[in-house]
Amino acid sequence: MTYKKTAISIIIILLLIIASIISLNLTGLVVKDSKNTINVGVVATQTGVGAYAGQEEIRGVTLAVEEINNRGGINGKQIKLIIEDSATAPDKAVEAVHKLVNVDQVNYIIGDSWSSTTVAMVPITNQEGVILISPIAILDELSNDDLFFRTIPTTDGMMKKLAEYAYNEMGARKVAVLRQATPFGVENAQDFKKYFEGLGGEIVAEESFPLTQNDLRTEIIKVMEKEPDTILNLHATGPPIGLIIKQADELNINVKWISSWGVQNDPLVKEYKNEVEGLVYAYPDDSALDKDKTGFVNKYKEKYNENPSLYAANSYDAMMVLSKAIEKNGDNPKDIKEYFLKMGIYNGAGGDFKFDENGDINKKIIIKTVQDGKFVKVN
After folding, report:
1. In b/e form, how buried is each residue of 40-78, taking b as 16+ CB within 10 angstroms?
2. What is the DSSP code string of 71-107?
3. How far is CA 232 from the centre of its chain?
4. pTM of the entire predicted model
5. Of residues 265, 322, 307, the one with CA closest to residue 147
6. Mean pLDDT of 310-338
7. What's the pLDDT band for 59 if we cut at 50, 70, 90?
8. Which DSSP letter does residue 33 get?
9. Strand 351-353 with 346-348, pairing
10. Helix (H) / strand (E) containing 214
11. What is the pLDDT of residues 4-50, one digit of tens each?
């Protein structure tokens, strides 16, 4: 009986050890096997307000990794993605970065899919000597000579284009601003004001709100007291943009609406198609997705049975350009930075780009509008 109990105890212990090993692998808490793999961290807004952007980031990066690994990896090594959720919250993004750097020991991170969380991540990745490439973070304040790169233009260029169109083509003269109380909201509002007032327009009111606030009726009523002809809607992305306009409609408010590039988001038109009809916004030139010279669009549609967004294309490009840099310059962040700064124009799925000395790219900005539930370029 004693022997039987001992045998059972040993079996239980072995099972627990095996379970622990499996758990460690599933959660990414295993020291990377540098001989056979290259670990790449991904921070994405899988939950929270930015969930759609996070989904698209992960899809784009995953598609790129599958393509790279299927053709033999990078110099014979397979890429392993370690994905963390920032939950659209700066503190969660910081936790994710610390885990990826200190536990998983990654040299490279792609993300985040949200500007305000990326702001919190950059000081850590710079301090730790880790390359960070964001497909979505547009803030001007991130433009520095460091280890941060991005595959999207900055806020300044987009708000300049929007201000010029609003003033010259829409006849806007008195604009009120509704913005989220985040770095994204602050910077977009500042850049728009700079260019709009420079043209002779006036910002007559500005109200901010927490990112998670859903009822904006009070803020809408306040800005309407200043009798604007146009409202700049700076709730960053997706359905919340439409909710603000719906609440204004319910208050019988009739103004022109303009917004940021986050308008181009399929869930927005699915939920608020009628409310956002005619909404105008600035957007990076996405004609490359129509031409599909890289075959990305077809691959995406085949895998996910949907058309890809620019979020996904930029994420795919971030992973692809990183793999190319590692292949050419070796698996070292300093060498990767050197490669990025010296490389020529990269022909990406989201359009051609070249990094400048601050890790920024320059893409043409266009004006688009929502028309019959579709995102259409304004001629």
Report:
1. bbbbbbbebbbbbbbbbbbbbbbbbbebbbeeebbeebe
2. TT-BTTBEEEEEEEE-TT-HHHHHHHHHHHHHTS--S
3. 21
4. 0.87
5. 322
6. 97
7. very high
8. -
9. antiparallel
10. none
11. 444 444 443 333 334 434 433 433 333 344 578 999 999 999 999 99
What DSSP assignment string belongs to 283-307?
A: EE--HHHHH-TTSHHHHHHHHHSSP
Average of pLDDT values for 343-360? 97
Distance CA 177, CA 135 (A): 26
Token code pair at residue 241: 């943009």
- The phi and psi torsions of 32 (rounded to 5 degrees) equal -65, 145
Q: Assign residue 351 a region (left: φ > 0; alpha: ψ between -120 and 50; beta: otherwise).
A: left
Nearest-CA neighbor of 77 among 85, 69, 86, 89?
A: 69
Q: Is the pLDDT of residue 282 over 80?
A: yes
Secondary structure (DSSP) of 119-148: HHHHHHHHHHT-EEEESS---GGG-SSSSE
Sheet (strand 78-85) strand order: 78-85, 37-44, 108-111, 131-134, 148-150
SS3 content of the chain, % helix, strand, coil (to 5): 45, 20, 35
- Of 137-146, 172-181, 233-242, 327-336, the poorest mean pLDDT is in 233-242
Tokens 């003033």 map to which residue?
167
